């Protein structure tokens, strides 16, 4: 009631000590929770590793590192990109194929027509 009338709060002499104990208990609970979660995650990782070993799988990080190394390896010292990176429809390969198709068609034409197309 004194608080409502503008008076001072009633101070509990042990309030500070109780608050410190409460904070310590909360901190200890949080540490226990984190330790429990760390143990559970370690168990999960152990099971994951057993599965990877059983089926010959690799971790995602290992797989990405190997792919990155494979991409960097042929490119070292090279000024051109790898041939498989050239999109289909680009380059000299298509021209060679077109010539071979034309030659194939010319073989089936009669002699005078072949002479016309070759000129």
UniProtKB/TrEMBL annotation:
Residues 1-98 are annotated as: Disordered. Its main location: cytoplasm. Keywords: Cell projection, Coiled coil, Cytoplasm, Exocytosis, Neurotransmitter transport, Nucleus, Synapse, Transport. One of its GO terms (molecular function) is syntaxin binding. It is found in: Cytoplasm, Cytosol; Nucleus; Perikaryon; Presynapse. It comes from the Eukaryota. Binds to the SNARE core complex containing SNAP25, VAMP2 and STX1A. This is Complexin-2. It comes from Alligator mississippiensis. The lineage of its organism: Eukaryota, Metazoa, Chordata, Craniata, Vertebrata. The gene is CPLX2.
């Amino acid at each position: 009631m004194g608080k409502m009338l503008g008076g001072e709060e009633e101070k509990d002499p042990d309030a500070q000590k109780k608050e410190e104990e409460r904070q310590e208990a909360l901190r200890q609970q949080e540490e226990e929770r984190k330790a429990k979660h760390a143990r559970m995650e370690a168990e999960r990782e152990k099971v994951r590793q057993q599965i990877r070993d059983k089926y010959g799988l690799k971790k995602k990080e290992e797989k990405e590192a190997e792919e990155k190394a494979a991409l960097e390896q042929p490119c070292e010292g090279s000024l051109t990109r790898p041939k498989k990176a050239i999109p289909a429809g680009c380059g000299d390969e298509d021209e060679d194929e077109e010539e071979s198709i034309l030659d194939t068609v010319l073989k089936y034409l009669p002699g005078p027509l072949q002479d016309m197309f070759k000129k």
